Amino acid sequence: MYRVLGAAFIAGFICLFLTPGLIKILRRREVGQVIREDGPHAHFVKKGTPTMGGILIVLGTVVAYLLLSRRTPEGLVVIGTMVACGLLGFVDDFIQIRKKRSLGLRPSVKFIGQLAIAVAFTLIATNVHSAGHPALPRSFSFLGGTFGNLGVFFFIWVFIMITASSNAVNLTDGLDGLASGSMILVMAAYLLIAFTMFRHPVTEHPNFYSFTGEPALDVAIICGAVLGGCVGFLWWNAAPARIFMGDTGSLALGGVMAAVALMTRTQLLLPILGGLFAIETLSVIIQVGVFKLTGGKRVFRMAPIHHHFELGGWSEFTVIIRLWIICGFCVLAGFAIFYVDFVARVPK
Q1: Facing residues of 147 across strands?
Q2: Is cis: bond before 137, omega within 30 of 0?
Q3: Are strands 139-141 and 146-149 parallel, antiparallel or unpaired?
Q4: pLDDT digit string (tens) for 38-64?
Q5: What is the spatial distance between Cα 193 and Cα 103, in angstroms, rounded to a whole number?
Q6: Residue 314 has what DSSP assignment?
């Protein structure tokens, strides 16, 4: 456990103490947030706030992982997915800043980038693995076991998971500290899940999970590093934010969340643990769908749903705290389901 806690401390230290320097550099280079013109008017004052702070979350996680892990193939593919998604987000941020607009990469280009990441993840994770541990099966999973061999369609499933997760975090990152604070809670749950799998190897308990041993510890270390990085970053990202994570951070965090869910064989548990991210995404889907089907009618005042509450008169701080509470309940529900399954597997 000391390596997991050490990773959280290292990543948190990097984000907490290096962010002020990054803020100065970004201000000097005029790397500021571009605000969407149709957004809430209260957000216009945030225009020009330094963005791309997710660079330090990714950096802190990578440094902590390389210092404290055994660098298993399973851990490397998870951390590689985070870096790849972060690079895609960096390009997106760079284009937004360069062209002074709220839209960066064209959707088709981002689609191709996420598809390439999904294909690379699947090829590596399902073929390269630690000695004595099975590779990632090309199947669905819920609580550590797998079912339904997807074969070649597993590539599509991984693409859906990575794209949905990265875009969901990106949509949630619309209020100061909302995404980073929520990610702390989700990563805390996945840290406990991965560490539980490490502490109860399948060799000792045949009914336990197939993902265990050093690979599971490596993933727990990554979760600890992401958690610590988000805590350190939240110090500067809390309202009123002095820096935003940008797409660099949101896509990286969404990508690593999906990769962890895939590697721990808890794919279908992710929508419960990350329930807030799912709600934010569904609000956009519902808003767009109803608008197109009815020729202009809206369900929410504005989507994602956090803007709906803002326009309803809630202060930004109130919206953030209450959505954190919702995220906490989702995490508790998801971890409770996992823990009940864990206890049921313990030999009598």
Answers
A1: 140
A2: no
A3: antiparallel
A4: 556 555 566 778 989 999 999 999 999
A5: 36
A6: -
